[in-house]
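YM 10:42: Mitochondrial carrier protein sequence, as discussed on the call
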Amino acid sequence: MQARGATRPLFYESFTAGAMSGMCAAVLTLPFDVVKTHRQIELGEAEMKHTTPKSTWKMIMRIYRQCGFSALFSGLVPRVVKVAPACAVMISTYEYGKTAFSKYNKEHNRTTKSLQVPVNQ
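YM 10:58: structure's back
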């Protein structure tokens, strides 16, 4: 952006940045989502059996022991395919709206200042 001398990002730059940040967020938060899903299943089973659920740390260790490290990243591709475009659309729409409203406000202020009648004191 600075290389081309602009102060605001272009649409494709915002879209790409949103997609990349969405991908990073999806990868970093997926293990927690996997654990959350396992906890929800375990809570349902615990209610039926009248037992207490395990702690989150114990859940992580159980998943790791039973299925390996890759189990914490199960469903990665569908999650990235869902989250990356959603973040790209959100960030690029936000940036586009911010630019459009900024231009509108500048034009509106310019118009209202030229229409104001000076007050004599």
